[in-house]
Write a structure and sequence with these properties.
about 50% helix; binds nicotinamide-adenine-dinucleotide; 2 domains; Dehydroquinate synthase-like, alpha domain; 9 strands
Length: about 375
Amino acid sequence: MNNRIIDFRMPQSLVMGVGASRQLPDILRKRGVKKVLIVTDQGIVKAGLAPAIREAIEAAGVGVAVFDGVEPDPRIEIVAACASAFRAAGAEAVVGLGGGSSIDIAKVAAVVAALGGRADDYIGIGKVPGPGFLHFALPTTAGTGSEVTPIAVLSDAGEHLKKGIVSEYLYPCAAIVDPELMVSVPPAVTAYTGMDTLTHAIEAYTNRFAAPFIDAFALEAIRETGRHLRRAVTCGIDLEARAGMARAATLGGLCLGSVNTAAVHAMAYPLGGTFNVPHGLANTVLLPAVMEFNMPANLGKFAAIAEALGEETRGLSRRDAALLAIEAVKELSVDVGIPQGMRYLGIPRDAIPAMAEGAIQVTRLMGNNPRTITVKDVQKIYEDAY
Ligand code: NAD
């Protein structure tokens, strides 16, 4: 019997639904915030989202400064630049507006601006000694679920690796999830961020440390992704599909604090750190091959994934039903236009041994994998996914 005790946490407040972001100015006023720093990237500015949110906050009499220097899969150094902008602006709170990259930088900058030091000081689990400035998270992608996680992921360009900061002090005080902020996400980004959500849910659900309470979030995230991702990619203005994917991403994020991910994420780190493959895309090309490896560890759960993705499993053996889960994930990935293999992402085949050595060292995640995994297994999976 799985009797693991979980310590489930989330932001104090989760405001979700079409138009939810219009509540931000009021939420800031009620908290007594006089000036905020919006942390975002150029893509969000160009999409008109940062200017609109800025105007709305200012109209409510709250001062605003903007830091738009976040980049996709951001380097650690960006935290220092963002914390300096925070201090220079005399801000009292941070608004993380963007995908996981902007929200992660906002989370860590709120800590560094309050506690001093550098982002590197806080890498690892439980290294942040106390709360940072207030942080409000507004996701503009349906992917990472960072708005509800205690995690920030930063790229170390020198070491060609991605590094995680995990701390209860990284939870935003409020997550405001508004599908309207997501309609401008381009199809390719919608596809790989949505597949990232699916990866979170599958890796939490099949995790060695899976917990029944978290399974409920994971299965629902898988269902929502199966129902809505194709529509969100093919018709970005379909608000119902965007709302479904927004729920999926937040549900997927809720799986990360108590259970987290496993081999797919560990193996994706070298793809991002060395070859700059966006996080969600790296996960997506690896997911089916890792599922094939992990399937024998829990046929029943893989069969349940097939069902959650809408596959008909009645009359099938558990093994055949489990195999159907892998097929369903591959079909979804093809339908949303994901390149089918690492070979299409500019990764030379002879980089695989070094990537395997790097990935196996991400013990924080590899230890969660449902099937014990060796460096040889990792190499074979990279080959299968090539
Ligand atoms: P992202 O934040 O890097 O954004 C990707 C691109 O999409 C950017 O160019 C951005 O400008 C654009 N974009 C985002 N929203 C848009 C919109 N509404 N309209 C137009 N363009 C838009 O992508 P992401 O996948 O959300 O975040 C990835 C990062 O999150 C990675 O660094 C990853 O490691 C990290 N991550 C964090 C957690 C966590 O719990 N903190 C979990 C998983 C992943």
